[in-house]
Q: What sequence folds into this?
């Protein structure tokens, strides 16, 4: 399943438009805050797909029956860029467990690169719902490696992959390499162009740098 939020009119699109805007991107705090708020919206939409149960709630005046989400997911983010989304998701699923994946690019002299796993930490994911978030899906290599690394830690019930923007090519590559029935994609937008250096066009730039400052080389 692939859900693309900007296909429908909502305030999500306002937030996405602002994080794309190169002038507004100069305010790092605003960029982070918008990403967190979009994480909350993703969480709300994902919650509609999660198991629920009817609970009886004692109010000051009687008993109310409410259909409530009955499961806490494990939220895993790809560092650094996925952290603001992670925080927004965590505000919606406040009892969720949390994990982190660190990956980096090994650049070759010809300009090509390979994605390498550096670090993975997460609680038990066996039989649980996992939400894996990264700001962007460019070539699809990072999110695919992160997902496969998670699967070495157990077999979750389902994985929801959350990203602000994916390239059409990267989304296709990730869907091809990951198990279709066990993985869903929740995207803010899908952009058509991916450059030879794996930058999404129009995209929004380097989300990690925009949120936390430029990396030193």
A:
């Amino acid at each position: 399943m692939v859900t693309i939020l900007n296909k429908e009119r909502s305030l999500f699109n306002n937030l996405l438009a602002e994080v794309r805007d190169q002038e507004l991107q100069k305010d790092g705090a605003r960029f982070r805050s918008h990403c967190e708020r979009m994480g909350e919206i993703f969480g709300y939409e994902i919650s509609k797909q999660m198991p629920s149960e009817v609970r009886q709630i004692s109010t000051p005046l009687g008993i109310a029956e409410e259909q409530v989400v009955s499961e806490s997911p494990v939220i895993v983010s790809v560092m650094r860029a996925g952290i603001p989304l992670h925080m927004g998701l965590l505000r919606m699923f406040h009892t969720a467990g949390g994990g982190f994946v660190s990956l980096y690019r090994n650049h070759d002299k010809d300009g090509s690169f390979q994605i390498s796993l550096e670090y993975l930490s997460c609680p038990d994911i066996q039989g649980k719902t996992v939400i894996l978030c990264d700001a962007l899906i460019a070539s699809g290599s990072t999110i695919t490696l992160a997902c496969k690394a998670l699967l070495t830690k157990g077999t979750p019930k389902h994985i929801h992959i959350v990203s602000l923007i994916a390239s059409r090519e990267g989304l296709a590559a990730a869907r091809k390499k990951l198990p279709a029935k066990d993985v869903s994609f929740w995207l803010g937008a899908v952009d058509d162009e991916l450059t030879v250096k794996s930058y999404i066009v129009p995209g929004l730039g380097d989300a990690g740098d925009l949120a936390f400052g430029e990396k030193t080389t």
Remarks:
- The radius of gyration is 18 Å.
- The chain has a mean pLDDT of 91.
- The chain has one domain: 2-212.
- DSSP finds six helices and twelve strands in the chain.
